[in-house]
């Protein structure tokens, strides 16, 4: 049986945190290693350009994310690892989709509504974000898109756009993708109990040093009055099973400091091997760039083929 196609991406916009890891990136590795999928993992640098508008920062963050991918266990021998901007079919297809997608439809996107509610001045790239993401997904005959809960709507947009294109041009050019969201870890809370996010300043970095872990855990907001500090437990649950945690939390009712110390140990034990792997990789950035160049070549082959079929379907080829 042929393998299903899988694609996902992350924007190089800052330090990866355990919310990104448990919400999305860990699944990438598990799915890759399951052997059931032909995997494509992208660095969504053109999406990041909406935010990162500084040359050095863009270069650094892109390399950082490539290191993250490799350190968590994505393997260029098993998966196609590439940078979005290296494959121009993405932006070209996004334009074709732009001519089908209506403004009211895009105005219903959560990300757009959030930005508007904050009275932000929104650039066209941010407004159009779901269209480029649809192109990312649809170019690779993608069956499944593993993402965190907050990206579910974007995958629906990709489905809708594929359906609309196929309908308008009376074709079957695009396959309809599905999201893949792990229920238990759909939203990882940050140290203040809200969703962990770079933009909330409540993260535990994925490759944190022991000191950084200690600092973050010590700042977890604890609501006094209960035996179990909810925010500590919610994060602890990611690193140990509830059965493993029960004796610890039973023995330390109301002793928040002891529970936090145990959490620090467990996070550090988990992060240490990945942190070491990443530090080693960081010593040879040339090797990392080579991996991305090879990935781009492979991605381009698939994407260009789909773009050609698309151009034929619309009548420009
Ligand atoms: P951030 O909110 O920190 O800016 P991103 O938007 O860059 O994170 O998210 C990258 C990926 O990680 C997405 O697939 C997203 O769904 C997932 N993700 C981010 N934060 C969380 C979280 N707190 N819980 C679960 N998944 C998350
Ligand atoms: N929008 C995604 C995020 O913010 C990143 C992304 C870009 C993506 N293109 C994608 C995810 C295609 C999955 C598939 O996390």
Which terms would index this structure?
single chain, 317 residues, binds adenosine-5'-diphosphate, mainly alpha, 8% strand, 14 helices, binds tryptophan
Report what the structure shows.
This protein is mostly helical. It folds into two domains: 4-185 and 285-314, Rossmann fold (3-Layer(aba) Sandwich); 198-280, Tyrosyl-Transfer RNA Synthetase, CATH 1.10.240.10. The protein has 14 helices and five strands. α1 (18-34) links the parallel β1 and β2. α4 packs parallel to α14. The mean pLDDT is 95. Adenosine-5'-diphosphate is lined by residues 10-11, 13, 19-20, 23-24, 147-148, 150-151, 187-188, 195-199.
The total beta strand count reads 5
Under CATH, the topology of the largest domain is which? Answer: Rossmann fold
Task: Characterize the overall form.
Answer: globular
User: Whole-number average pLDDT?
Assistant: 95
CATH class of the largest domain: Alpha Beta
Low-pLDDT parts are none
Q: Note the run of SSEs as H and E.
A: EHEHHEHHHHHEHEHHHHH
For the sheet with most strands, the description reads: 3 strands, parallel
CATH superfamily of the largest domain: HUPs
**Percentage of residues in DSSP E strands:** 5-15%
- Our count of helices gives 14
Short description:
The chain is mainly alpha-helical. It has helices at 18-34, 45-48, 55-72, 89-98, 103-107, 110-117, 124-127, 129-138, 152-168, 210-218, 230-236, 242-251, 256-282, 285-314, and strands at residues 4-10, 37-43, 79-83, 144-146, 178-180.
């Amino acid at each position: 049986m042929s393998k299903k196609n899988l694609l996902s991406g992350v924007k190089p916009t800052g330090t990866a945190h355990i919310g990104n890891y448990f919400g999305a990136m860990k699944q990438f590795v598990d799915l890759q290693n399951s052997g059931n999928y032909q995997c494509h993992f992208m660095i969504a640098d053109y999406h990041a350009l909406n935010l990162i508008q500084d040359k050095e920062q863009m270069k650094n963050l892109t390399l950082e994310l490539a290191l993250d991918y490799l350190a968590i266990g994505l393997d260029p021998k098993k998966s196609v690892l590439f940078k979005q901007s290296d494959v121009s079919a993405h932006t070209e297809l996004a334009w074709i989709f732009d001519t089908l997608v209506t403004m009211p439809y895009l105005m219903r996107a959560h990300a757009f509504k959030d930005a508007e509610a904050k009275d932000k001045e929104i650039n066209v790239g941010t407004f159009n974000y779901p269209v480029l993401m649809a192109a990312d997904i649809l170019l690779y005959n993608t069956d499944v898109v593993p993402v965190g809960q907050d990206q579910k709507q974007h995958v629906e947009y990709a489905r809708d756009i594929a359906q609309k294109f196929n309908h308008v041009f009376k074709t079957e050019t695009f396959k309809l993708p599905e999201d893949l969201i792990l229920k238990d870890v759909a939203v990882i809370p940050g140290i203040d109990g809200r969703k962990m996010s770079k933009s909330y300043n409540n993260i535990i970095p994925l490759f944190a040093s022991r000191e950084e872990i200690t600092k973050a855990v010590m700042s977890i907001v604890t609501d006094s009055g209960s035996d179990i500090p909810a925010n500590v437990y919610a994060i602890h649950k990611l690193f140990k099973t509830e059965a493993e945690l029960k004796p610890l939390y039973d023995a330390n009712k109301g002793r928040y400091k002891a529970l936090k110390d145990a959490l620090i140990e467990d996070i550090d034990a988990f992060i240490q091997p990945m942190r070491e792997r990443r530090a080693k990789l960081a010593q040879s950035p040339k090797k990392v760039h080579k991996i991305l160049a090879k990935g781009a070549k492979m991605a381009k082959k698939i994407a260009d083929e789909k773009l050609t079929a698309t151009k034929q379907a619309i009548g420009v080829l």
